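Technical annex, item 7. During the second reporting period the consortium partners agreed on a shared format for inverse folding records so that results from different sites could be compared directly. Each record opens with the tokenized structure and is followed by the designed sequence. A conforming record, contributed by the partner at site C, is shown below for reference.
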């Protein structure tokens, strides 16, 4: 089970957890958040040793995609904000497919 998804949904940690509210993480609200409510790789002396490697690989992969492609939503495709999350899966993901066009950046300059 993906623990961070369930932690984020708990209303005792975040009021109205189903609502997207980035203001929760502003510096003035930071003191109200329990430091242990988000633990994707564990914490303490036995946390996942692959954490830094996984995070660095993710950053590199996303940077390569953004550097080489322009991402545009396909016409008539649902936006992420218009979809419900998948409720039966192990990972947090949209309940329906999201379609993007990957336009090579070298094609944009021609």
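Designed sequence (site C submission):
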């Amino acid at each position: 089970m993906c623990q961070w998804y369930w932690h984020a949904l708990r209303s005792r940690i975040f009021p109205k957890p189903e609502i997207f509210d980035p203001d929760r993480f502003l510096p003035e609200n930071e003191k109200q958040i329990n430091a242990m409510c988000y633990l994707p790789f564990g914490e303490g002396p036995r946390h996942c040793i692959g954490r830094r490697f996984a995070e660095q690989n993710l950053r590199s992969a996303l940077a390569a995609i953004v550097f080489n492609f322009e991402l545009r939503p396909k016409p008539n495709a649902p936006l992420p904000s218009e979809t419900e999350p998948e409720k039966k899966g192990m990972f947090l993901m949209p309940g329906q497919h999201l379609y993007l066009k990957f336009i090579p950046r070298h094609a944009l300059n021609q």
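The CA atoms of residues 7 and 79 lie 25 Å apart. The beta strands are 69-73, 100-104. All partners now use this format for quarterly exchanges.
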